[in-house]
Write a structure and sequence with these properties.
single chain; 61 residues; alpha+beta; two-stranded parallel ribbon; 13% strand; flat
Length: 61
């Protein structure tokens, strides 16, 4: 499982890597709902990118 990123340099490097990949689904928002959707899609064999601007589950869903 990919490790979360932190800091501006890691974010820039990770965004560059993401641009070179293709995903079946991109989930925007790492709240409870977004995490559930990402988990469900991954468990069905889809490649998933989860994008969150803050820490996971830091807001409300």
């Amino acid at each position: 499982m990919p490790q979360p990123i932190s800091g501006p340099q890691n974010r820039i490097e990770t965004i560059a890597k993401l641009k070179a990949q293709t995903f079946d689904i991109v989930v925007v928002g790492g709240g409870v709902t977004g995490l559930g959707v990402a988990l469900d899609a991954a468990s069905r064999g889809l490649s998933v990118a989860l994008v969150e601007r803050e820490d996971l589950a830091s807001g409300t869903s």
